[in-house]
């Protein structure tokens, strides 16, 4: 029995348990390693790269880890939904590598990332415009000074909005389960680094012709700190187009990346 049919033959409870355990291990391994490196092992070596000088209190970590576990359970529920959709032929997904070219496999991965980036920007933007949606999104914003464990620290309702992209996109986009899993892992890695509280890119990064379109940890850190601006996830396309980057973004980035202490005042857009 290959891995595909093994997954499809599991009982719903066994599948839920297995996917929860897999997602939890992946999350706590990635976020845990980043936390251990930056907040424990090399704390003093990396201190000049800390975006906000203060370190979060223990109770913030407790809240974030509890919320992350709930998010993982909700995400596993959605993995079960995707499995149900696949079994019943409701998706455009394919499992036979021969069905599409390897070029399409690569393109579908990048398309997933680009479409997820657009979905996230508009969902996130809407959450900041609507008072009703903000009630849920406010939970993520309790982490004023984010840590690697802020990445999945959502209100359960927001977790549903966050993951809904995946069952929706597979209705129309022919993707292989591996491309989908790779996009999920990329998303998690990017989120953990974006919430790490540390700037990892070098000074001058935002002047590079192509690289400048990639969002930096400072970009999302400013969003947690100041609120209404810097809404984007992976790329800066939508924030640039909609003029929602904080006016001081490049200046703040340069100050952290060149190890000068950051400014604290805030000028909107
Ligand atoms: Zn937000
Ligand atoms: Zn965040």
Describe the fold and architecture.
The protein is an all-alpha fold and 269 residues long. The protein has one domain. The chain is built from eleven helices and no strands. It has helices spanning 3-9, 12-41, 58-87, 102-129, 131-141, 156-163, 165-172, 177-194, 217-226, 237-241, 249-257. α2 (12-41) runs antiparallel to α3. The longest helix is centred in the N-terminal third of the chain and has 30 residues, at 12-41. The protein is globular. The model has no long low-confidence stretch (mean pLDDT 93). The structure holds zinc ion (2 copies). One zinc ion binds next to α9. Residues 140, 146, 150, 195, 220, 224 line the site of one zinc ion.
Largest sheet: none
**Radius of gyration over C-alpha positions, nearest whole angstrom:** 19 Å
How many independent structural domains? 1
Q: What are the secondary-structure elements, in order, as H or E? A: HHHHHHHHHHH
Low-confidence stretches: none
Average pLDDT level: 93
Which structural class matches the secondary elements? mainly alpha
**Measured distance between first and last alpha carbons:** 56 Å
How many helices? The count is 11
Percent of residues in helices comes to 55-70%
Taken as a percent bin, the fraction of beta residues is: under 5%
Shape: globular
**Bound ions, cofactors and other small molecules, one mention each:** zinc ion
- Work out the number of β strands: 0
In short:
This protein has 269 residues and is an all-alpha fold.
């Amino acid at each position: 029995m290959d891995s595909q049919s093994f997954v499809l033959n599991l009982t719903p409870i066994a599948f839920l348990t297995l996917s929860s355990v897999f997602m939890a291990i992946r999350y706590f391994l990635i976020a845990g390693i980043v936390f251990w490196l930056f907040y424990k092992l090399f704390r003093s070596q990396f201190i000049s790269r800390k975006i906000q000088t203060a370190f979060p209190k223990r109770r913030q970590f407790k809240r974030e880890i509890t919320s992350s576990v709930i998010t993982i359970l909700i995400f596993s529920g959605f993995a079960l939904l995707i499995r149900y959709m696949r079994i019943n032929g409701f998706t455009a997904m394919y499992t036979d590598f021969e069905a599409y070219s390897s070029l399409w496999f690569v393109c579908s991965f990048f398309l997933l990332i680009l479409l997820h980036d657009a979905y996230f920007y508009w969902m996130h933007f809407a959450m900041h415009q609507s008072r009703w949606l903000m009630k849920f999104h406010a939970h993520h914003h309790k982490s004023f000074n984010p840590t690697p464990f802020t990445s999945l620290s959502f209100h359960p309702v927001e977790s549903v909005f966050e993951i809904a992209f995946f069952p929706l996109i597979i209705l129309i986009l022919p993707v292989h389960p591996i491309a989908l899993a790779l996009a999920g892992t990329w998303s998690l890695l990017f989120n953990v680094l974006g919430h790490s509280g540390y700037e990892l890119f070098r000074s001058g990064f935002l002047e590079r012709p192509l690289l400048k379109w990639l969002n930096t940890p400072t970009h999302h850190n400013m969003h947690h700190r100041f609120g209404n601006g810097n809404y984007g996830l992976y790329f800066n396309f939508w924030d640039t187009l909609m003029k929602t980057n904080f006016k001081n973004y490049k200046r703040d980035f340069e100050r952290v990346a060149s190890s000068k202490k950051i400014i604290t005042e805030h000028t909107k857009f």
